[in-house]
Amino acid sequence: MFLFQLPWLPEFIVRRRDWALLVRALRDTSVPGVCSDSDLEQYKESWTKKGALTAMLNSYRAALLRPSKLLLDPEASRVKVPALLIWGRNDQFAVETMARESLQHCDDGRLEMFETASHWIQHEQPAQLNNLLSEFFA
Hints:
By secondary structure, the chain is mainly α. It has seven helices and two strands, in the order ααααβαβαα.
């Protein structure tokens, strides 16, 4: 996360060798075979759009800019609308305890844990995810 604080270097590194770092991250952290070559080409096309990569990295940059509102005023940052947290139990980036702690900041929060999914639920279990979202938004 500290590398992302630099102004241009992370973008340079991530673009190198035809996005090899991001492609490897997707392939290494998902169920084998779930990201097809076609999927990866679509990701690469999206990443090349002006400002897209910087926007992706800016969320990491912003995390260290100032103290979280949760620390300063927990009540002001409560989620007051119904919230659905969708999590993959095998997520290597966002562990289950993060989901459970996040629920504590929701007045009406629900956690749906996908037992065999990783960080890439939309690729690994798209039908189940779409059903869950359709139910929630209905």
